[in-house]
Amino acid sequence: MERSFVNKVAQDRWLYHSGLSEPRPEPPERVESRLKGEFDDQPDRRLRFATAKYDGTHQIVLRSDVENNFKTDRPGRHAVVDGLHHWEFDLPRRIYGGDYHFKLFIDSKIWQVGDNLKVGWDQNAIEFSDNEIAFAYVIEYWTERWRPAHLVTVRTNIDGTMRDIFGTFGRVKHGAWQFLFCYDQYPTSFEASLVLDRCTIADGHPFTLTDTDPNKSFHDGNLSFNASETAYTHHYENFVSIESESDQRLVRNIPRESDHYDVIVLGSGMGGGVLADALSDRLRRVLVIEAGGIRYPVHMNELPREDASPVQRDRLGHYRYECTDWFDGGVAFSLGGRSVYWSGLIPRMTDWEFRDVWPRAIRDYFLTADDEAQTGYDRAEKLMRKRERLGPYQNKVVQHLNSVLSDFNTIDLPMSLHQPNIQNDDGTITLKNVLTRSTGCFSTADLLLDSLGKNHPAGNQNLRVALHHFITHIRYADGKATGVVCQDLVARTERTYTGKYIVLCCGSVESPKIALNSQLTDPNYLVGKGFNDHPAYFYTKKHELPTTGDLAWLGAMDGHAKLLIRHKQANAVDHPYHMEVLINPRYWDLRHSDDDLEHADSASDQNAVVELKFIFDSELNDENHITSMGPDKKVTICIHPNRTREKYRDEIVQVRNHVLISLGVPECDLSDAWRDDEWSQGIKGTVHHAGGSLRCSSDGSGVVDENLKFEAYDNLYCCDVSVYPSIPAANPSLTLVGLAQRLAKHLDERLDSESTSSEELSKGPSV
User: Fold this and answer.
1) For residue 554, how many other CB atoms are within 10 A of its CB?
2) Cross-strand partners of 193
């Protein structure tokens, strides 16, 4: 049988869709057929482990939940292909006909680290790599006493007794430090010691790890350090504060508690970073307070590529569930916040998405040109460096679809992807004089570090950034916020900063947490309520595009298109969704310095394919809520599946067919009704698109007003997706940046007004 292995690493790398999608269920009729044994005579399923580490001198077996509950060995077959070791496992269809979970076991000694891996019923041949399967000696230390911001490391006699080996806290094991020592890099026996804060070795250490005793587990009852607690401890997982030399070098002007600022911005992400930079450009003294350090100075896609996903690896565990439904995390504590990790999509909200719940002043700001012939979206797109063009293939696809889909508008999927030397000249793309280089995908880490690196009034003369400062609460009195209290996680001391205005920009989970911990007056009892995300539906089948006939050009292997399709405006309100269409998804974020890697990634792709996604808007849901358990604890989240757009299922099936037939997919390959096994549903929410937990209004019925000011406070604002009074179909980033620019102008005008009033008062009464 011809084997077409799906490389899971490459597959994950090019996933661009935001939103939590459920796995595709096995159809009931297939389950029934499988139980009857109707697939028993079909070829075996196969699993491959491709490794650069483990050759044929080892023995690797697979154990699974469908064979004696992980007690039966299924030996692997070793081969060398193109210099890489392959361990292949033949899995009989009569046993492995549906979903299965597995783990690998090497040399009858070491288990694969981590949770059991799942393979779906429709994945007949799948490949895993060293980035996903690791064999290692494991040390775990379960502790309540020495949690972050304390730091626990390990020293070994192999690495040198002064070299600290870092682990993770809570990312794999909740409440535990975990350290991995790769089986291929460490001998069959070595010594190790746990070390607190890089200076205190645990009492009684070192201890010994061997290949016959590869796992060691400690807890506060059987391990002690001769030290006392000095650090502020929190319950966030995968959040360990370590100040680097880069932190100190790139952020040189250290804020002082004795300084008083015009505006204090809490959080440096998409909203906070843009707001702070815009205000400092207006020569206002601004302080940004950020819980993380400098993880990456630019967007992750501008860095050398790697198989592991930084989005998943760096995200924090910052909430727990109050209800049983799953909500997908994604927050990152670092300079730039999630703007360092986002997908770069910047569609505008259309008129119908504002509906009646968005304040009219905000709607008009975005959609109506001002005296300079600029809308709010024009200004936001300029800052975010909206991409001009993707090339002749995409242009041709757009023209084709606009000619055959008469009820729709097809445009380039708007992206923040800097093309500084491209200009439109009477419809023709030309190259301008090459004066500047691309800054790639927008991030506020890049924006802020650009300012901090320049000794200029619009640079570091008016901008200060406090890294590794964990905000606990806001102080207030007489209807005004008076200060921000935070824990300096590096210096291990509490600090309070004061300013004329304070703006929460910590995201739709962390901002309401701070508001709740501060016990802010909430006249409408809406802080933390309404929290919701937009539902999305992913069509999971990938259809090949034609290579013959009039549309043969669509099947070009080197063609790539990212498209946004919407109903024409007159009908859009009755069809509240956008379509994202992606042709040849392997090119989504293609970046390589080594051309050989590009060919390796695409080697298994034999045909041009198309993917579709439908994204709906959504109202808020007051049954969803966020509850704070205290400044040093995670919040609890109750968010229910968003099923409000399920009534459109039949419609999107017909629209899907219309679009795919227009792209040359045979009608006979398409179903004429909704089938669960063809769709994956993103209805449970993601932290990076959910909002509404501090909603705005124009009539005093929300948490903040149309200027994003808290209703009960004169100088306290919020500028993140929390303020959204509904969740648009459009990705939220462009609108949030526009809101930040609008708020910067508003605060600048208030500061001007106060200055003018002070000058008038200082003159005294006229004679």
Assistant:
1) 24
2) 155
